[in-house]
Each structure stands twice: as C-alpha cells, then as structure tokens.
Amino acid sequence: MWCNNTGVIIIIFLMQVFSPVQGIVNPSNETANTVIFMLPEKDLGPEVWKAGMSCLDSFSQIFFYRKPTERFTRAYNLMLVHAYHLSSPADQIQEGFSQLINEAATSPGPPHREELFQMRVASDYSRSNETDGQGELILADNYVIVVDSVNRLKKLMKYKMVRMRSWNPGARFLVLFHNATLRDRPLGVATDIFKDLMHLFYVHRVALLYANSSMNYNLLVNDYYSNVNCRILNVQSVGQCHDGQLYPNTAVVKASMVDYVSGFSPRNCTFFVCSSISAPFVEADCILGLEMRILGFMKNRLNFDVNHTCSLESRGEMEGPTNWTGLLGKVQNNECDFVFGGYYPDNEVADHFWGSDTYLQDAHTWYIKLADRRPAWQAMVGIFEAYTWIGIILILIISWLCWFTLVEILPEPRYYQQLSLTAINALAVSISIAVQERPICETTRLFFMALTLYGLNVVATYTSKMIATFQDPGHLHQLDELTEVLEAGIPFGGHEESRDWFENDDDMWIFNRYNTSPDFAPQTNNLEAVRWGQRCILSNRMYTMQSPLADDIFAFPYNVFSSPLQMIMKAGFPFLFEMNTIIRLMRDVGIFQKIDADFRYNNTYLNRISKMRHQSSDTAIVLTTEHLKGPFFILVVGSCCAALTFLGELLIRGRSELEVSRRARRTVRRTRQRRWRKPPKDNRWQRQVQVAPVVRFTPVERRKVFQGQTQTSQK
Q1: Which of 218, 412, 453, 578 has the fewest other C-beta atoms within 10 Å?
Q2: CB contact at 8 A, 478 and 370
Q3: CB proximity list for 451: less than 8 A, separation 6 or greater
Q4: Both 306 and 454 in a single domain?
Q5: H helices, E strands: number in the chain
Q6: Whole-prediction pTM value?
Q7: Alpha-carbon distance values, 151 to 21, 22, 154, 193 (Å)
Q8: Which among 171, 324, 289 has a CA at the least distance from the CA of 565?
Q9: Where would you find the membrane-spanning parts of this chain (predicted)?
Q10: pLDDT per residue over 288-323, tens digit each?
Q11: Domain residues for 389?
Q12: Do residues 430 and 344 both lie within one domain?
C-alpha cells in the first residue's frame, strides 16, 4: 500500500509467524499485524529496487562464473534465500530478483545465460519445519541472500540453511545488504559478515553488495586466503555499481574478479595439520611415512606450508548428536584444517565432514599368536598323510601274509616258514635294509624283488622330504578363525572406528565382544602381547608388514575388509578441489602404484634377505635329541613289547615245564612200580640208544674232521 505523502511510505505486511521485527505495532491488540517503516523520500520508487536488482543480477553472473577446469557436467544449483519481513527496498529487490531468476531459469537466452541451471528456494517462513528425512539432494553450488541486518543473516544461516540436506559451505555466497541506517559503515558490516560466516559456518567464498546509498553499491569480497597475506581477514573491493550498472564498467569488474579468484589459492598459506601415528603411513618422528610423502608432494605443487602435529589419538567417533572425539573433534573446533593417518572412508564421517579423493589401499585382518613349532619327531610322522601311513601298514600286512603263504606252499626251508620270521623279513624289505632271506623258488624270488623295489621307492620318497622337514618342521594347529579364538578364550579388538564394520546381523557377536581399549590398538607393545597369545588384534596388513614382529605373529588368510585411504577436513574447506586435482594426477601417472610397490618390495624381499644374511653364519643344522625322539620312542616301545613278550614266554614255559616235571614224576613212579612187579619178558629185543654229547668244533677243526672223513671214504 503506497500513501500519498511523498515523505512517508507505509507498507503493510501480514504476519505469518511471530518474529521480532522493527516497526510500530499496536501493543494493546493481540491480533495486530501491521508494521510501519519510516523511509526518506530518496529511497522510494521503483528506480531504487530496480537498481539493486540490476546490480545483483550483473554481479552474480561474474561472481558465479567458474573456470573451465572447475565446471561440472551437471547443471548448477542456485539456492535463492527468501527472507520474510524485510525492510524496503530490500524486500522489493528480493522479489524482483526472484522474478528475474525464475524467468532466466525457464527461458535462458544469449548472451550471458547460455546454460540451464536448477533453482531452489529456502525461506524462513516457518522455523519449525523439519528438514531431516527429506532424502538426499545434490549440494547447492551458489547462494543468493538479500538481508537488511547482520543478525537476520546469522539466523537465516543457523536455523534454516545449515539444517538443509543440500547445505554446502563450500559453495559461493552472494549477499546483498541494504539498510538505510548503516550506509556509512561498509568496512565494519562487511568484516562482521565475513567473520561470522567463516567462524560460525566455515564459509569462505563470499561476496557482498553493500548499499552505501539508495542506488549505489560497493562490491566487496572476503580476501582471507590471499597469496600475499594468507589467513588474515581483509575486505577487498572489486568495483562498484551505480544505478544498476557496474562501475567503471563490466570488463574492469570482471578483471578485478579474475585477479581475486587467481589470488584465492593456498600459495604461501600455512595449514594446521593433525595426524595419528600409524606406521607405515605416518611414522612416530612425524617426518617419514607413505602419507607424509603424499603431503610433501602436495606442498611442493601447491606451494603451501603446514604446521604439523602427530599424536597417538585416534580418528574419533561421534559422541552425542553433533560432537566428535579424537582428531575429528579438533577439526570440528577449528584446531586442525585437515587430518590423516591411515583413515578410510566412513559414511558416518561423510555426513559431517569432507574427504579427499582416495589413494593407496590397505586391507585389515585379525592377528593372533603363531602356532608353536612342531616337534621334529611329529614332523617325521607328518611327512605322509594319515591315510598314506595306513596304506603302508596295510601293504606291509598283506606282504607279510603273502610271504608266509608262499613259503608254506612252496618247498622252502622249514626254518624260514615261521610266521614271525616272515613278518620280520617283510618289514625289513619294505624299509630297504639287508635281510637273511635267500629264496629258493622262483616265485618267492620274484615276490622278493617286487617288494624290494616298492621299499626302495617308498624310502626314497620319504628321505627326499625328510631333509626339508629337518630344516623346517612346521607348526602345530594354527588358529585361523575368530570362532576358534573365541573358544580359546582370547580377547579380541582393535581401533574404535573399525568396530562399525561388524554392526550387522551376522556379526553382532563380534560387535558386542569387540574391545576398543588402548591395549588393542595396533602398536609394537600390543603386538608383543599378540605374540605370546594374550590377545587378538584387528590391524591393517601394511602396518604389520613393516613391523619387526611380522614373522612372529600369524595373519588370518582372509581380509575382514579392504579400503583405500583419504584425508579428512571440515566441510567447506576451500582448497579441496586443488588437493583432489593433485591426487588424481598422482594416480594417473602411477605415483601411488610406485609408492605401494616400493613399500612392499622393501618390506618383503629386502627385509627377508637381510634377515637371511644375518643368520647365514649359524644356519648349520645340528641334529639333537629333539630329532631323535621318534626313534627313541620306537626303541622304548619295542623294548617294552619285548619285555612283555619275555614275561609271557616265561609264564608259558614255566607252566609247560611244570607239566613236564609232573609227567616225569608220574613216569618215574610208574617205572618203579613196574620194577617191583618184575614184568615177564616178552622175548623182544630192546635197543638202547646212547646219545653222544654235543661236541663243538671250530672252523679249523671242522675242516680237519671233514678231510679225515674224505680220506677214509677214498680208501
């Protein structure tokens, strides 16, 4: 509603929400919704708000322009913030620009708007609107905000824009500030706006159209990241706008913006970097490490410095709705610009922070005590599988029975037809040792030859494996499943952030028993506890590969998860694009592959060669009683069996001799009885045989006896 008084304009707003506004309100009527603003005559008329709208439109086309290397393949998203209860002419400028940008979005045309773009509208109409659960959106690229006070701008940012799913602190913010009472304070107001946006919302790419009169504007930018005085707040002017026209002209303003954009770089800046000590990515000296090499490459290319601090703090986890622990808490409190130290992408972290492009790759698995070395005698038995030994024993038994059958059927000497002797001969031939068997029949000889060749091959195969077994007897049963670790009662755990990998239905038993205390962090002293079987730790393979205990602990053959690495910074970090560009170039030219290959070569081949050289002086294998436990065991078992057999034979022979003595006594008694009876003679001849005593001869005497018998026979 426009009044006829040329000095006063009365604008009536319908109050949609109860929010504090500046004006004259009827306090006695609760339903009063009329606000009256008093403006001077020079701020009236359509020329005022059309000039502001034209300045905003002209400068937005310059400020939102991006270099070809930074352009997206998709259409850009423009967020137009619509604030209610603005004073005039800010309210008319907002409505006029909204109408203009809607027309441009629906029907773009040359020469300036040759591309389509998406437009979104944010409003402070109702602060109770919930933005959570509206689904994922593409982040906004450009923001246009028209305000009349710094306090209104902060409220718009805090209560509306930050809570939107498309909130992007790294976008470009264009703010038009028009307040008739603050036209003589451009530097102070601009400093407050730039400082609040940086410290409260981490927004750095900000341009301000500050109204220093009803139709004139100063074009100001935040020159905080300058290659001259980096990280010092400086309000820089890139031009002016008079009566809707850029001054002195569009080309000069565009050139000033090009200088500003080119100067907005990390060159000569110092960033605060925090990292976790996590070898091999960041070593304890905070100088060496794989990621330290990548950081050094970025520093040389982008020409910036770092104030680097290393600590044993972990990455950190969310604590409460918005607070974070660890190094991410320092990033949240602006103590660190970005952090790294073997961090992998995490969805929970990605919702609140930004991450660089990924590089390298590492796998995580469980580490447990290496199984004890197998005794040498068990290694000798373990040369053949159990079923192989069973097969050899069955063949031995079959050979024994076949041998016994042949010597029984064939006319072999009676002495060699004993069952025990055939078993001994079969065993002796099977293990390729000399025997006293001399077969007479051809069938027995062929069987003897076949069994001998079989024994030679078996012994040769066993002996060829025995040499390597002496050098490396191997290990006993190795725990290689987490279920076995749980049954053994060994606690397991690792980094706190790695626990999230087990938060699913199948692995909840791991999630509930997972230890996150410092005793389970992958460190040398904790790996010593793993070496002695006190705990099981989830660690990355690259860390344990370069550890001195790499050969003393056992890694599960499967990977729990594999993931690339990344740097993490606060959302809105202004130079993420430049850092990602360096990472992509390093990946394209193969620098990451070279770093990974060098690391694996140095920590596998070279380390093992150095260990072999160190042990070359005492690599001679000396046989000890440990290697002879098997033969000693066989000897003891055989001796015990022989002793038991001896006792059995004594018992058996004792009983037989007792029976013989009883029979002899009975015979003597009967003989005596017969003698007393004097049986009659039966007229039969009785032969009395006298057995000569056994005479033992030496070989010489035996030869003489044989010669005498030969001469007698010749005569």
Answers
A1: 453
A2: yes
A3: 399, 403, 426, 429, 430
A4: no
A5: 21, 20
A6: 0.70
A7: 12, 13, 5, 9
A8: 289
A9: 386-407, 632-652
A10: 889 999 999 999 999 999 999 999 888 888 887 788
A11: 376-471
A12: no
